[in-house]
Amino acid sequence: MKKIFGYIVSFVFAVGAVSCEDDELPVVLSIASDDARVEVADDGSSASLTVGPDGGSVHFRVLTSSAWSVAETSGATWCHVEQANDKFVLLVDQFLSDKPERMAFFSVTNMQGLEASVTLKQTAEKPVTVQLVGDVHVLSCRGGETDLAVQSEAAQIEVEIVDATVDWLSADWNAETRTIHLSAARNFTRENLSARVVVTAGEGTNRAEAEWPIMQHNGALTFDYTVAAEGTVIALPLWGAIDCTIDWDEGSATESFRQDVASADDQITHWYEKPGTYRISVFGHIEGICTANAERVMNHLTALVQWGDVGLTSLNGALAGTAIESLPEADDYALVGVTDAASAFDGCAMLEEVPVGLFDAAVAITDFSALFRGCAALRGDSPYTLVGGEAVHLYERTAYSDRFAEPTAHAEAFAGCEGLNDFAAIPADWK
What we know:
Helix content is 6%, strand content 40%. It has 431 residues and is mostly beta strands.
């Protein structure tokens, strides 16, 4: 019995000794991490880390002898913390920005008021951008191929034509040259075709997208006519041998014509019941364009919208006396067969803009007489063609007989065009 009592006393004493020792243990708080990005102070009281633009998760362990909590203290909303048992995880969002970095701070505290800190820095990834050199592209009605340059810092580029009905155009990405290769079939329709090419640059969530419209001519010689009164008769400036179909922009059936026009009385006319602006499209073969001083042309023709692909060989008196204000670019085939441009724009007092490359392919013209006579509103440079990087104006073609036909008639070609940048350089016999 004495022996049993002795054991009980010894046990109570031992328990009491342990309790005393626990009361005297120091309260500790330290953090640790196995993540290679984390640098922890030797005493575990602080840690710092840098994460990349993709963000992600970073795991920590907490060593303490009492309850604890963790919180973000700097007001950052791009990172979050989750706590469970003796661990916590930092969850970091993706960072796309022109700024180089951003910071957040976390505090770990226990019931005894001890604190450990975590400093988080995230570096940014510059957002991907994508641009195409030029924003609208018009393709020839004859089809063909062309390359469009893409500017982007992204290595990954995807190109697609988003319109499911497009079967006349293909687009292929060349990663080596950083260009989109467009290939178009010939447009046999009577419509101007359109498509949208979409380029996507980058990967994952760091992506940029751009869209460009692509258009293709329908090959029609196209005019705008303005009709001010009901029951107005207009005339088209079609000249010489004509074999064509005309869309009068009334929603009705087209008309076909096959005839020779040698005077104003022969010109094709049309009666419009209602006032308005009408876009008239001419398909087929047209030998020439000439107003022939016909009031039914000059009083109503307000614009040449498109030269088209109609086999023109003469521009003699083409738009003379009309109220046109500008001229469209000419595709290589549009004026290639023209030999006579005398008085083409004679008396077009409102004409302000002419493409400098208008006659680039019209190398066979020999008669430029009165070409722009009386075009007092004309500004910019007179038409020229780049030859070996040098601008060769119409009045300089004589020196390039291997490239252009000899201009044998050119009197008053630029008479009254004082507003041209190069007017002083134009030879006297051209003005």
